[in-house]
Fold this protein.
Amino acid sequence: MTDHTSRTTAHTATERTITSSAAGEPLDVLVIGGGVGGSYAAWRLLTGEVADDTSGIPSDPSARRVALAEASHRIGGRLESPAAPGAPELHAEFGGMGFTSHNTILTALVDDVFDLRAQPFPRGGGSNLFYLRGERFTADQLANGYEVPYQLDAADRGKGPMTLIVDAIERVLPGATGYSPAEWKQVQADTIFAGRHLREIGLWNFLLMNMSAEAFAFAHDATGHFFEVSNWNCAQALPWLLGDGNASYRTLTDGYDQLPITCAKRFVDAGGLLQTELAAEGIAANDDGTLRVSFGDAGTADARRVVLAMPQRALELLAPSSIVLGRPDLSPAVGSVTGHRVMKIFLAYDTPWWQQLGITDGSSSTDLPLGQCWYFSPVAGQGNTNSLLMASYNDTLATTYWEGLEGGQAFVNPAGTGPFWSAQAPSALMVEEVQRQLAEVHGSVTIPAPYAAAYRDWSVDPFGGAFSTWNVGADADAVEAVMLQPDPTVPLHVVGSTYSSDQGWAEGALATAERLVTERLGFARPPWLPARAS
């Protein structure tokens, strides 16, 4: 069990501050951003083996001076997992929720390095629901030929949404569901579709040119999201959609944010300096080649190397007062991705009411603004029947619907609710509307009033979205390489999932950080990392 105290001790500021520690001798590395990429990069840079000393980082870890600065009060970035009030074993995953067996670095960290508790991630069963165009049907009914309320061609009838998408893709790329990573790289490099390189066309374009409008509408509606089939870079989207088809999914038992928290704790235990609530406001070059980071009223810190573990929007906010980032020639690279609006609304109940319908832990989907619902029933030994529902996992246009209900009287959470939950209470009107839509989706079952509620809108600054996707026309590999060090003459680096081939996954943040550490800064590959990871 992970309580509030253990969630915060990993990132409690010490008596030393980053600005005071850098007042004399510059830091060797200053990492800015305490999400997955930043906490992992800081830990690796402090503890890893230097194979090539061209970076100037001391070969002796005890001689290194590495610091990690995080603007908010917590470590985790877009991983945030507060426990539900009254059900401390149920974690509301406000951000990323899980990982797959294909996430090589992450899997090695969880199983071999940190020994974190993990469990299968629930995907739902045959009684989980679809509620589309006013009709309610189960996953089992769909699998057994239910006539969905869409005007499908004869060849498409009886097929599920993902099957329709796979069929569309395999009309152009036969056998794509079985492609290896190397084969996908070849597809991304060489495939021409409709007279264009695959990266010069959007996923929405590609799908609609290979399936009927009604088949696309069904596939879109049945996911509960738009981003999965939206018009992002097709060369990157296709392996993103199909690459994990045969993977197994897991999550962390004590909350997914335990991954960055554990990285940060290992970093501090090894002698690293971590400070939260310290926001960078600008970066300038010193005459001796070091960089000076301004933290506003908190002062400045000089470092021989600075790593920015930030999403696109945070970089844009920092750019006007920073070396390199504000240069016009870097704008195309920074702007080569688009952040996606995503909101999650969680409700806690004193009973798992959905079980009356045979619904199991996992998801249901609707074309209502709720998008997806995810059910989390009581765990063994919990001592009560308190349950958690991700009542709405919505994106793009649907997010703006819920934003229209923000403000006004807040929903009142129970006394003693932890700060990470209570600080994100939705409006009472928002909860009322969620309950109304839940009743429409689920039908005859009586839905009790929730006793607790919280939500997270990732479109706000400095996040600018829950994740980003590559724009049409972007050469993802080239941009990722540029962002690792935008100017070869300036020791400034950018890591994170935003500019990676695994956008929206923690693995993308880990992979770019590992590339920086090994390929650019001369560190040895860690012995625990399997050869296929990069």
